[in-house]
Design goal:
- The protein is an alpha+beta fold.
- The protein is built from 10 helices and 20 strands.
- A 9-stranded mixed sheet has the order 5-6-7-4-15-16-17-14-18, with helices on both faces.
- A hairpin with a 5-residue loop joins strand 16 (295-298) and strand 17 (304-308).
- Helix 2 packs across helix 9 (388-404).
- The protein is globular and about 65 Å long.
- 44% of the residues are buried.
């Protein structure tokens, strides 16, 4: 998505020519079509930079939707974060107050703010932003009767939802091809650097491309791509998966927002299942407390339900195809039942669904890398973590400003690769969490 968005902003929005988009696979098929296609302007600090970056990106998504005359749909139903713990809700409120102050929009309190969640096809740019804070269980369940009666608090983020990201990308690809961009189905094997600057690239099957400007938009393959120009980037990968399940019983309404359970969970297993898991050293963690964050949403006009949860976020080298925990789907279903009890009826049926996913490529502080690299003529747009779909437009817009020497937004410096050469910035990272802003 980052590469396609960059080609779109260069060729279509800025009118540049002689651009080649090189990918050995069909565009988006490595990781960008494996996500949940969510978006939100709900990011913590430190500082307002991620918030401003994401607000800009959502503006561009909405502009692109209008420009495409409805080539893709945006469902601005929000993100609903739930808890059964009043103390945890108090913490969620404190976090919401901090995020609101960074530019997410105003907070509204009390059960009177709950209403239907509209989902206009244009994404609803005129709808309110900010978030609703509710600590009335009856009011929450009147609006979302499918959630557990143990719920005690809710934060409903309003400038958030999901959209058909693949359809948006296909539309952008059509536009870039019409603007003269050549999509080259090949693999870059080497980069020619002579005299300290990029001179060209060598392809596996179709020879050489002479160029003085190279943008690396390699997703989780960014470490290998950077090594071709002699650079080690401060990035690592995490494997994230999801389960797509047929919800023909309609346990989760098709109009539901993104639903998120903010409590840790302990999964329910039968005695036989527990003995089986205890016999597998790598599966024993599923018997104890597991982290918060299981979330789900409906997808499409049919019965598909997407469920997502990352209980193992260990850094690992990217391998293709990814290998998933064989118990992932079943564990995910049982975790989601803590929030939506009706899903307990699906227990044992995870094998009927489909598990897939991809790698988040991340920096230590979970901010993207966008800007020039320390080799003349080389640029990067990557480390977009779990926000690549929602953030690709702003990242591409920023990269184009760097490439063309335009005025850059104030958040540009904290995303530039050069930030790690600033001792003050590096010192400020101490104590940051590598999953900051991540669900």
């Amino acid at each position: 998505m980052a590469g396609v968005a960059t080609a779109y902003h260069l060729a279509v929005r800025r009118g540049l020519r002689d651009i080649k988009l090189v990918d050995e696979r069909e565009p988006l098929t490595l990781t960008s079509d494996k996500g949940t296609e969510g978006y939100r302007n709900w990011f913590p600090g430190p500082g307002p930079q991620m918030m401003r970056f994401m607000n800009r990106s959502i503006d561009l998504i909405e502009e692109t939707r209008a420009e495409s005359a409805g080539a893709f749909q945006i469902h601005r139903r929000g993100y609903v974060m739930l808890t059964s713990d009043p103390d945890r809700f108090a913490e969620m409120v404190t976090t919401a107050e901090a995020i609101s102050s960074l530019g997410a929009g105003p907070l509204r309190r009390g059960p009177q703010v709950i209403g239907e969640v509209p989902s206009p096809s244009d994404g609803g740019p005129s709808l309110p932003g900010g978030a609703d804070l509710i600590d009335d269980p009856d009011a929450i369940r009147r609006r979302f009767p499918f959630v557990t009666d143990r719920v005690r608090g809710m934060v409903h983020v309003r400038r958030a939802g999901f959209f058909d990201a693949v359809a948006m990308a296909r539309w952008m690809l059509e536009r870039v091809r019409s603007a003269g961009v050549e999509v080259v189905r090949d693999r870059i094997e080497a980069v020619d650097i002579t005299g300290g600057r990029v001179r060209g690239v060598r392809l596996a099957a179709s020879g050489r491309i002479d160029t003085g400007r190279l943008v690396l938009a390699a997703g989780p393959l960014m470490p290998e791509a950077a090594r071709m120009i002699g650079i080690e980037l401060p990035v690592f990968c995490e494997l994230h998966a999801k389960l797509a399940l047929d919800d023909r019983d309609g346990v989760v309404p098709r109009t539901a927002p993104m639903m998120i359970w903010n409590d840790p969970v302990v999964l329910e297993w039968s005695d036989a299942e527990r003995r089986s898991l205890e016999a597998e050293p790598e599966a024993r963690a599923l018997l104890g407390p597991l982290p918060a964050g299981v979330h789900l949403r409906p997808r499409g006009s049919g019965c598909e339900l997407l469920l997502i949860w990352t209980y193992d976020a260990r850094p690992r080298a990217a391998e293709w195809p990814p290998r998933y925990d064989p118990h992932y789907g079943e564990a995910l279903l049982r975790a989601a039942a803590h929030m939506v009890p009706g899903l307990a009826g699906h227990a044992g049926r995870a094998a009927a669904g489909r598990v897939d996913g991809g790698y988040y490529c991340k920096t230590p502080e979970n901010r993207p890398l966008v800007g020039p690299l320390p080799v003349e003529g080389a640029w990067v747009i990557g480390a977009l973590s779990g926000f690549g779909i929602m953030g690709a437009h702003a990242a591409a817009d920023l990269l184009c400003a760097h490439l063309e020497g335009d005025a850059i937004p104030e958040y540009a410096q904290v995303f530039a690769p050069s930030r790690y050469s600033d001792p003050e910035y590096v010192e400020s990272m101490r104590g940051w969490r590598g999953w900051s802003g991540q669900l």
